[in-house]
Each structure stands twice: as structure tokens, then as C-alpha cells.
Amino acid sequence: MTNPGFDGMWLPQDQDPRAEAGPVRGELDTLVGYLEAYRTTLELKCDGLTPEQLATRSVPPSAMSLLGLVRHMARVEQSWFRRVIEEDMDLPRLFQDEGLDAGFAWPGEADEALVEEAWSLWRGEVAYAREVLARTSLEKVVDVHGEPTEVRDIVVHMIEEYARHCGHADLIRECVDGRAGQ
Questions:
Q1: What confidence tens digit (pLDDT) does each residue in 61-110 have?
Q2: Per the UniProt record, which residue ranges are transmembrane (predicted)?
Q3: What would the pLDDT profile of 35-60 be if each residue is shown by its tens digit?
Q4: Among 96, 120, 109, which residue's Cα sits nearest to residue 56?
């Protein structure tokens, strides 16, 4: 286990990519700013780890791991932005197969190919979600389980989803190599 070495911070403050955004104006920029900061946090928490380290499970009996979080968040991005906001409910959900536990589980061993596939899926879904937000009003109303819901509520939910899972990622990463914080 190592110590982070930056007064408990993950990175020196002047090297944190989340600090580059600068001031924002308006609701959309604020919401997107928080969402992007959490997306970046997930990437930072996984940075520099081997496939085996990324696949390290949290506390039993949980199947949660950093790799599982990346896969799960690809599923969440796809579901909310493609299926719900874009109203493509016929699109099969990622990792829907029995036993894949919403992306947290996978068949076989974690290897470089699985890690690359997970990051490719996640980055593709994030890129698509960014396009959707760029062309969609926060006031747009979509159906969520029979309830009319504004896109704004979905974006807030995504921030909450990332915030919760980034907390998990922080704890898992600390168990893997001692790095924590920020």
C-alpha cells in the first residue's frame, strides 16, 4: 500500500483536470459540469491499475469492483440517454444477460481485452450522452416507468448515480493500493 503523497489529495491541485473547467453560468452548464467532474473522477480512480487490480472485488458478498463500476456506468449512461431520453426502449440494455449483474459481473477472468472493452463501451456511451444533452432541452418530458419526467431530473439522477459510485470507487481504490481522497 502506498500513500497518496499530496497532503491526502489524489493529485496536486494544479494537476487536477476537474479544476480546469472554470466558472459556469446557468443551470445546464452547472449540471453538465458536475456530471463531467464525476465522470472524470471515475476515470481517475481507475488510472494506472492492472486488469487484476481493476477486477478486485470490494467486501464480500458484493461483486462490486472498479471494472464493474465502469461497465455498470456504461449501462446506466446507455439506458438513460439512449433508451429513455432518445426514447429507444427497443434497444437492449447493456449487460442484461442473466448473471452479469448489471455489469458488475462478467464471465471469465479480467484481462486487458475486457478492460479495453469496458472503457470503450463507457466512453462511447458518455460521448453519445454528451451529444444528447447538447441537443435536448432540460424541459423535455419523457416517460420514466409511466411517469412524465423532465430531462433535468434525469441529469440530476445521473449526478447522484456517479456521486454514489465514485464514493464506492474511492473505497475500492484505497483497498487496492492505498490511494484515497479528492
A1: 888 999 999 999 999 999 999 999 999 999 999 999 877 799 999 988 99
A2: none
A3: 999 999 999 999 999 999 999 998 87
A4: 109
Cell 412524465 -> residue: 148
C-alpha cell of 77? 449512461
Give 180 or 97, the one with higher predicted confidence: 97
What's 10's DSSP letter?
S
CB within 8 Å of 18: residues ≥ 6 apart:
37, 40, 41
If one counts every other C-beta atom within 10 angstroms of the C-beta of residue 150, the result is: 15
Which domains, from first to last, does the chain contain?
25-177 (1.20.120.450)
Q: What string of H, E and C letters represents the secondary structure of 107-169?
A: CCCCCHHHHHHHHHHHHHHHHHHHHHHHHCCCCCEEEECCEEEEHHHHHHHHHHHHHHHHHHH
Is 37 in contact with 166 (CB distance < 8 Å)?
Answer: no
